[in-house]
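Morning run. Coffee first, then this:
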Amino acid sequence: MKISSSPPSPQISKAINDHSNTSIDDSLLISEGLLFIRPLKVTHIEHFNMPITNIKTILKSKNIPNKYRCRVRVVDYIPRKIVNFTRPYCTVCKKTFEKSMDNSLVCCNRCKSTGAKIKYAFLFSLLVEDNSKCFLPIIIFEIDKSEFLGLPATDLKNPKDFEELKSRLKKLWVFKTVSDNYCVNENKKLTLTHSRTILCGNIFDVCIERYKNTQGIRQKVFDTRII
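And here it is:
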């Protein structure tokens, strides 16, 4: 999927770079025109009686671990290529590893396990924003099957599985092309048009768990599924 991108703001770049040490190109697609009203019925959450907490409050809180209900929209994601939203997972090492560049046997590069000892896992991060104008990266890491997506984790080189995933993600965001006109002389008789692609996220409710690990403070989705 070929996507042109706008330059990221320093605030968004810091949020996503602090969250993930990755070699993926982190150029960002910026959403515009935020209006946080009643969300579309995009997700089902188990804890609908929980009050909505804004991201600004979460970032200031020293109470970790903790769980929240948030009303957000996606402004970016990593890895950049959706085909890399799944990774092979070794049930022996309990870790994911890089996909092979060819169609050779999937083998753990640590313990050399193959076959039934290797599963696939969804592993990607969404950068979300709410009406407090703050950003929060949240992880989706689910082995074998994703509760959030309602899909089995497979090698996304399979065109059918890849299209099913894109169809699910379209409930969260779509891409639109917009054009900006710029005057390039004082008489305003000469203008240039610049086209860019922006990510337009739908507003949705999500349950987020905040926790600490050896890499720092992280957030992950729980008890939430796309409908």
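The two ends are 24 Å apart (CA to CA). Good start to the day.
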